[in-house]
Amino acid sequence: MLKTSCIISGQDRRVVVDTHLLSPRGITQYKDFIYWTDLEKKSIERAHKLTGHNRTTIHQGHGEYVMDILVFQESRQPGWNPCGADNGNCSHLCLMHPGPPNQAGTFNMTFSCACPTHYTLASDNKTCLPPHAFLLFSQKGDISRLVPNNDHVPPSILPIHNLRNVKAIDYDVPDKFVYWIDGRSKTIKRAHENGTEVSLLLCIPHLSFMTI
How far apart, in whole angstroms, are the C-alpha atoms of residue 88 and residue 114? Predict the structure, then answer.
């Protein structure tokens, strides 16, 4: 069953929904409704948060196992922060944090730019520079980058998705493209190391070579 608490102490608990719940998992609330996922029914449902009325199935999966759920709406996150304008002029990551205390003893919010793994922050404290030297290696479903002579930073898996059976890889330094052979689809593909501009270059039904 699904329950809700009317007061923050947890007292006065009420049963909201107690029928046709096979395997409820994630739950969230937005305005007058609660939303939940049901693993066995492969569904997302909602009902009124106090009465359980107006119960509606808003998604019924087809072979999909929905585990968790979260409602995103701008009205749930009112206000402003320094990273909200042009990402703080940071090339990659903008991290908001409290600044020095003011005369009233409160903290004004400020920000600093940061870089993803293997990148370094330039002297302007805004631009992230890629590594000058690195190794690329592939596993069956991943292509990873390793910076040599840096034992404190682990390898980083490149955000290139839907890799099934990587047989060989190559790298185009001027244009920063990663090339790979997919043994399952028998194709040669490429993408930037940040996962963008994925494209199919060649389809070979009787693929037999293992290098590019």
Answer: 11
Residues 169-193 pLDDT 10s: 999 999 999 999 998 888 999 999 8
Evaluate whether 167 touches 183 at the Cβ level (below 8 Å). yes
Strands 93-101 and 33-38: unpaired
Burial of 191 from C-beta contacts in 10 A (0-12 / 13-18 / 19+): buried
| Residue 168, both tokens | 């060989």
Residues 193, 158: Cα–Cα separation, whole Å: 6
- Distance CA(152)–CA(157), nearest Å, equals 16
- Is there a contact between 166 and 181 (Cβ–Cβ < 8 Å)? yes
Homologous superfamily, domain 79-129: Laminin (2.10.25.10)
Q: How many CB atoms lie within 10 A of CB 145?
A: 19
Give yes or no for a contact between 96 and 77, defined as CB atoms under 8 angstroms apart: no
The per-residue pLDDT for range 74-97, each reduced to its tens digit, is 776 667 788 988 999 999 999 988
Q: Which helix (H) or strand (E) holds 120?
A: strand 120-121
Domain boundaries, the chain: 2-74, 79-129, 135-203
Domain range 135-203, CATH class: mainly beta
Q: How far apart are CA 60 and CA 15, in angstroms?
A: 24
Model confidence over 104-157: pLDDT tens digits?
Answer: 766 778 899 999 989 999 999 999 998 989 999 998 899 999 998 877 788 999
